[in-house]
Design a protein that fits this description.
Shape: globular
Number of helices: 13
Oligomer: single chain
Largest sheet: none
Radius of gyration: 20 Å
Strand content: under 5%
Distance between the termini: 20 Å
Helix content: over 70%
């Protein structure tokens, strides 16, 4: 089959909006807790952040959009390397030029802000693949960096995964393998939340699911009629809201349950269906979403710092419903400030290295 030369504008839409939802999720969660006088998360049981509003559940369980980022990574890399030989050195170099400059910048800012927290071994750990194992607390400057550690590992192994995954059965086998690993960890330790949500052992399934659905998109997408694709897209939207509402009602991230061994696989499948049908319907350039996508990485890494300032000085929009007041604070205060700051980091830190990235051959 010939290489599919289609620019996936729809992925820009999804990635740009996902960073906004993550910002709104963190803002709504932590501002709600602050307004409620909860300072120690150890005493938080999750009831405060339950909702009967199925639409608002997408905000309160907005951590699911981290899954979207990871799925898109597997999806996009599979499509862009389809039927191509990968030069491993150039492949890794391009990924480093994409994620490392701003990532290192945030670590350095955090180190200068909190020199008493600096530890050389932890610093080395944080800029390599071991950031989730031996972290250095530079919060709020490196709150999102755990994701980068997971991404780095995936980028390092993607070329090898691409070579060994020959058919759909191979994907199923390796996903089952990692489910068994997580089950073993749970049986030994009695916990699964942290390893499932914050390490490559928990997140690799979502990369693999993204790769799996990329193959489906490449080979099957042209077989869908517009009406059929629209129907499936509507079903996929319903599935996303049902998934987040259900997760919210059973406790969300606040509970430690055995089913979290495979919950991220459920998220991966539901979101992947949404992505491929969204691409069928809305794969056109939208300027606002194009610019938002450009800023998405900066927004993701910077929003915790802005939110910390808002929390420290209690710059809140108050409402009878604490959760909605927290949401409006995120939407009208945290988001605009983060976007303004992101314009600078994108223009002067990300963009120069992105231009160098484009000069690297595949």
């Amino acid at each position: 089959m010939k290489e599919k030369k289609v620019y996936l504008y729809g992925l820009e839409h999804i990635r740009g909006l996902s960073c906004v939802f993550i910002l709104l999720f963190h803002s709504t969660t932590f501002i709600t807790l602050s307004m409620s006088g909860i300072k120690d998360l150890a005493f938080f049981n999750g009831d405060l952040l339950r909702t009967r509003n199925i639409f608002f559940s997408l905000i309160l369980e907005g951590q699911t959009f981290v899954s979207v980022f990871l799925i898109i990574s597997g999806f996009l890399l599979t499509i862009t390397t389809y039927n191509k030989e990968i030069n491993y050195f150039n492949f890794v170099k391009k990924r480093i030029l994409r994620i490392y400059p701003l990532f290192l910048f945030m670590i350095l800012i955090g180190t200068y802000a909190f020199p008493d927290r600096f530890d050389f071994l932890r610093f080395i750990s944080n800029i390599t693949i071991f950031g989730n194992i031996y972290p250095m607390n530079l919060s709020p400057f490196n709150d999102a960096n755990w994701t980068i550690s997971v991404l780095i590992i995936f980028y390092l192994i993607f070329p090898f995964l691409k070579k060994i995954l020959k058919n759909k059965l191979d994907y199923i086998k390796i996903i089952l393998f990692f489910i068994i690993i997580r089950l073993s960890v749970f049986l030994i330790t009695g916990t699964i939340q942290n390893i499932a949500a914050g390490t490559i052992l928990g997140r690799i399934d979502q990369f693999l699911i993204g790769m799996f659905f990329a193959d489906i998109y490449i080979n099957k997408s042209n077989n869908l009629k517009n009406l059929k694709a629209t129907l499936y897209f509507i079903i996929s939207i319903f599935s996303v809201f049902t998934m987040t509402y259900f997760y919210n009602q059973i406790g969300g991230n606040a509970v430690e349950k055995w089913w979290k061994i495979f919950w991220l696989d459920v998220e991966g499948i539901v979101w992947s269906f949404f992505i491929i049908f969204y691409l069928q319907i809305f794969n056109k350039k939208v300027k606002l979403l194009y610019y938002l996508n450009n800023l998405s990485y900066s927004v993701y890494l910077l929003h915790s710092t802005v939110l910390y300032i808002i929390l420290k000085y209690r710059i809140f929009i108050f409402s009878r419903n604490i959760k909605y007041g927290a949401f409006m604070t995120g939407l009208l205060i945290v988001l605009p400030l983060t976007l303004i700051l992101s314009l600078f980091t994108y223009s002067y830190i990300e963009k120069p290295f992105l231009q160098k990235k484009e000069q690297v051959k595949n």
